[in-house]
Each structure stands twice: as structure tokens, then as C-alpha cells.
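Q: How would the C-alpha cells look for this protein?
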Amino acid sequence: MNSNHHPHRRTVMRWGALAGLLAALPWTKAFAREENSMNVVCHIRYELDPFKRDQFEQYAKVWLTAIPQCGGALIGYFMPNEGTNFEAHALIGFDTLAAYEAYRAKLRTHPASKTNFEFAQREKFILREYRDFLRQVTA
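A: Here is the predicted structure in C-alpha cell form.
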């Protein structure tokens, strides 16, 4: 069987853990589905320098206020606790992908976000960053 057609076991486990996390959070009220609205969640997966997790936590705390100020519905930032020590996640909700684009434009001019981006570039605690856009499965 060709392994290129099947996700790696860790990837499957990672997505399973994320699905469990999403199901356990009371965030669905924040994104009540409207008939003509496509609700999306931006999932950011960070690969961190494991020796600079404190700096990433400082970075994440800035986003707790900056993201809502720029129009994102922050579900949360999640740090490594047990197990893998180099991976963190963020979940941010938007009504539409267009709302996400407007949010990104606001981030570029928001003073705290500009400072935070510069902090991350200077300190190099984020090694890689991945973005996925998810939608909630509903009945």
C-alpha cells in the first residue's frame, strides 16, 4: 500500500485531538450560523523553539486583546503542556473568508500587533506556522 495516500499517524492523532478540543469548547454560541453566512475558523499551528516557549506565551497573550480589537473572534491560544513540547495552536473565528481578509488588513496597522510581529521576528521563537480554514459540521 502506498503511504503517500494515507496521512501520517501523528497527523491523524493531531487532528483528532484538535477535533476533541473544538467539541469541548463552548465557542459555538460566538459563531451562530446564519442562513447566508459561511462561518470559518482559522486554525494556526505553530512549530516552536522548545527552549523559547515562554517567549511564545508572551506573544500569545498580546493576541488575546489585539485579535478581538481587529475583528477576529478569538477562541483561544493553546500551549504545549504534556507530550510534544514544540507545537502550539490558535483558533480564531470569522463569519466569512472576506471578514478574515479585512481582519488581516487591520492587523497590519494595529500598533500592538505590529509590535508583536516584530517581537516574533526578532526573537525567532516561531520556527514554522501553518494555517488551515475549518468549518463546523452541523446537522
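Residues 26-134 form a domain with the Alpha-Beta Plaits fold (CATH 3.30.70.100).

Confidence is low (pLDDT under 50) at residues 1-6, 26-38.

Upvote if useful.
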